[in-house]
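Loading example: each entry is read as two labelled lines plus one structure line.
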Amino acid sequence: MTSPLESVALFHLGPVPITAGVLMTWVIMALLVLGSILLTRRLSLTPSAVQAAIELIVDTVDAQIRATMRVEPAPYRAFVGTLFVFIFVANWSSLVPGVEPPTAHLETDAALALLVFAAVIWFGIRAGGVRGYLATFASPNPIMIPLNFVESLTRTFSLLVRLFGNVMSGVFVIGIVLSLAGLLVPIPLMALDLLTGAVQAYIFAVLAMVFIAGTVSEEGQSAPDTSSQRTLP
Amino acid sequence: MNWLAFVSIISAAVAVSFGAIGPALAEGRAVAAAMDAIARQPESANTIARTLFVGLAMIETMAIYCLVIALLLLFANPLLK
């Protein structure tokens, strides 16, 4: 049985080995980018069915950002929405026969978790400047500085391990069941795998939002925050 | 098969089995509490469900850590190289 922790290189592009996961990542990225460009090329005020469906997705992402972060979603929509859509499509790419989801490999998940780690710093510095961002490490009181620092690293690691473990275990279990009993038996497990994939994509996006909101809102505490109270009648 | 491989396989199984107990109990408690809250306040079911999902994922990570440790023992054991 091949180890789920290592991936085999398909071919070499110069000195760089290209694995199946990297290839699939680029295929998904190309599909998403080309699809987005094609679908948004002619937008109209009276939307067609396709445009309405896409607006529904964007609206859902906006509503989730508003509910989780309690801010206007515009600066975060692109990052969080792309994270969600990419991980969702990547997890469900196991529906295509012969394709292993790229999120079942450590490298892809590590890249995604590093993106979240960088985004927390980027949005934190943009909201409060470098001083304000560094001050969030001493937020309840300065005794917490080492703990907060370690937490910012471990939560990135746990994002990585969570996504990797969930997707990889699904692929692994299906592989084992497939080698024991062939036809039709793995189908319920595959359905469960699809559910896990969707939930994990959602969780990854929500956790990214929570981390970003934690950094941004700690700086914005001095500013009057009335928007979160306005939801109550 | 030397005794290091033997011990690695046993401890991988022990890690997964005992590592699943705690998260299973915790997830049960979390879901029960969420059900209770939704029964009391059905209008806030959306918020509770969202928070529940995130919390469940957090709890589940503990079991996933054990799974990753077991896989490290089985496939990337530095002592067996």
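Residues 120 and 212 of chain A are 5 Å apart (CA to CA).
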